[in-house]
Specification:
This protein is mostly helical and 148 residues long. It contains five helices and two strands.
Amino acid sequence: MNRWSVVGAIFAGLAVITGAFAAHGLGDRFEKLYGSMPDKVVAGAPIAAAHKYLGDFKTAADYQFWHALGLLFLGLTGRRCRLLNAAGICFVIGILLFSGSLYLLTLLAIPKLGMITPFGGMAFIIGWVLLAIGLRGPAKTVESSPNS
């Protein structure tokens, strides 16, 4: 196991915490924060702003978790190459920009933070492309060492 697995495990644990926070601790806060806002239109249907932003927070946790699993996978492949390392970096950047911007946007009621979110999504996409390309190359296993 290498550092990507450790980073992935940390992000996965944090995703579970944020998901639980969304499920059990944010409903009342979002009702107070967004209860007086007009409904948002999602897929052509009106939805209360508090519910919409709670869904956005949960989406951030979901994406964080899936990409944490991607990081775990990277570490467990036992392979090292620049493309796979770059994929890991992209996943971390994606988690910070995509999930991080949605967490902050919803908790602080700062909609302009939504301008950052697509950059995180793009980092996720680039990460998956790099992962696919990196896995196509010849296998290079990692020697067991205390630093891996």
